[in-house]
Amino acid sequence: MSTIPRASNSPAVPMDVENNRELQGTNSTEAEQGKIKKIEELRKQIERLEKIMNAPGYEEKVLPNVRAKNQEKLDSLKERLLLEEMV
Questions:
Q1: Where is this region: Disordered (predicted)?
Q2: Domain locations in the chain?
């Protein structure tokens, strides 16, 4: 195992290791914020689609194949939301 030479007043942990720790903290915070944003966006998409699908006359006015696609999309969004919330 090689030793890293350091001056007597330098920290016990090499600077690159210390900087890496700081970056990891930043990355995890950014990742958490990204996750929260993604969850919020999925919830908004679900809410918009449910509003459309629950509108008066939706069943009568919208073709069956379009209703089926909307239901598939809603199911997919809900599944993605569950997966995001679990991670």
A1: 1-34
A2: 41-87
Q: Which of 19-29 are b and which e, b meaning 16 or more Cβ less than 10 Å from the residue's Cβ?
A: eeeeeeeeeee
CB atoms within 10 A of CB 80: 15
- Tokens at 50, concatenated: 């449910």
Q: What is the pLDDT of residues 6-32, one digit of tens each?
A: 555 555 545 554 555 555 556 889 999
Q: Alpha-carbon Rg of the chain, whole angstroms?
A: 25
Nearest alpha carbon to residue 16 among 27, 6, 29: 6
Residues 84, 85, 86, 87: what is their CA dihedral angle, to the nearest 10 degrees? 50
